[in-house]
Design brief:
single chain; alpha/beta; Rossmann fold; 2 domains; 8-stranded mixed β-sheet; 5-stranded parallel β-sheet; 14 helices; 19 strands; elongated
Length: 413
């Protein structure tokens, strides 16, 4: 409850209660941005740092930004039983950064300070955003602790790849606070962690087929829908590989992003990532054709008529996935989802494509002026191979993504 266990008065609207745990890593300063995003979006945030974390960011900073008291000690305000009440009253606990030490203590149920006590008493969703050196993240002990936490239902966001402390670079960087906030926001909607332990491959964006070093054949896809699918899947506990074709968006927290340009590159990346995947969602707009030859230098404009560009077919990746499964050619996923962007005869064209491609679900949406491409919202009809048809009304692309994952989760073995 707001005010940590006391019901709000009749003239007060209850704000979602979030506990922000902060452990002792250099990335602790980035948690200030996460705290700002949480408070400005209407959440009542209580910061619970470890004692060592206060050596990176002090108590006055957390108190001023949150508007709530801050302590790392179970012995302060003992009459309020903070080591129990804080966790009991939370709607969400997020630990960012989560060090290897805190992950180990959480996995083994240790309770030596206020944060670890809070983790033991919380019965709400818990999100960990680890940050540490690559060697620590990859150590078998850390991997086992992460697996244990995930088995218990916690969301552990894989760290990002980038610059670490000093000159080191690798996986272990705290994801962008805005992306951690997006995961927290989706978790607070109450969606279950029904994709925990699942490996998902998602394609996003639009491929570009080179004409020369400057020009290309492409399409209008921004990648927003594919990225929404990735974010919502992470918030539901999944391990996600995102194959992004020419997308200018920040990497979603906890997602492994593979960047490609052409349809041929996208096909290779999807097939490589598909090993061990439970589902593949082909949300990218893949070019049907590419130039048969690419000029090695920029084609100059002259007074003569330009030479025609001869096109050849690109691989049909979605149909290939269906063929692989039908023929038992491993690896292949249990569930295959395609997207169909149509301008007219939307449902008729969608049903024909569903039958032709051999996928389990086909998300059919109408595109055109201010529809689908580059917009924050979307509407669609999902057609299923078993005859089910689900209409998803226009709304945020994250809501459409969650509706797709609802259908996928029901079909996973």
């Amino acid at each position: 409850m707001t005010d940590r266990g006391r019901a709000p008065g009749p003239d007060r609207i209850r704000k979602p209660a979030v506990v922000l745990g902060v452990s002792a890593g250099i990335a602790a300063y980035k948690a200030c941005e996460l705290l700002r995003l949480l408070t400005e979006s209407g959440h009542d945030v209580r910061v619970v740092p470890t004692r060592e974390a206060l050596r990176f960011v002090g108590e006055p900073t957390w108190a001023a930004l949150s508007g709530n008291p801050v302590t790392a000690d179970v012995w302060e305000s003992v009459h309020e039983v903070p080591h129990v009440r804080i966790g009991q009253g939370a709607d969400l606990v997020v630990v960012a950064p989560a060090t290897a030490d805190v992950l180990a203590k959480a996995a083994h149920g240790l309770a030596g300070d206020l944060l670890t006590n809070t983790l033991l008493t919380a019965r709400c969703p818990v999100v960990f955003a680890p940050a540490m050196h690559t060697e620590m993240w990859e150590h078998p002990a850390t991997r086992a602790n992460v697996a244990t936490l995930r088995e218990r239902g916690a969301i552990v966001i894989d760290p990002a790849v980038g610059r670490l402390t000093g000159a080191d670079t690798g996986r272990g960087r705290l994801p962008d606070p805005k992306e951690i906030f997006e995961v927290c926001r989706r978790v607070l909607t109450g969606r279950p962690a029904d994709l925990a332990g699942r490996r998902l491959v998602i394609s996003a964006g639009g491929t570009r087929e080179a004409i020369d070093p400057v020009r290309f054949i492409g399409n209008r896809s921004s990648g927003l829908q594919g990225y929404a699918l990735a974010r919502t899947a992470v918030a539901r506990g999944a391990e996600v590989v995102l194959v992004a074709a020419n997308v200018a968006l920040p990497d979603p927290a906890g997602v492994t992003v593979v960047r490609v340009e052409s349809a041929v590159e996208l096909r290779a990346a999807v097939l490589e990532a598909m090993e061990g995947a439970d589902a593949v969602v082909m949300a990218a707009a893949v070019a049907d054709f590419r130039p048969s030859a690419q000029s090695g230098s920029k084609i100059k404009k002259t007074s003569a008529e330009p030479e025609p560009i001869h096109l050849v077919k690109n691989p049909d990746i979605l149909a290939e996935l269906g063929d692989r499964r039908r023929e038992g050619l491993k690896p292949y996923p249990s569930v295959i989802v395609g997207f169909a962007a149509e301008t007219d005869d939307v449902l008729a064209n969608g049903r024909a494509k569903l039958a032709r491609k051999g996928c389990d679900l086909l998300v059919v949406n109408q595109v055109g002026d201010n529809l689908a491409f580059g917009t924050p919202d979307n509407a669609a009809v999902v057609l299923a191979a078993d005859g089910e048809q689900v209409e998803i009304p226009r709304g945020p692309k994250e809501d459409l993504a969650d509706a797709v994952w609802d259908l996928v989760a029901r079909r996973l073995p």
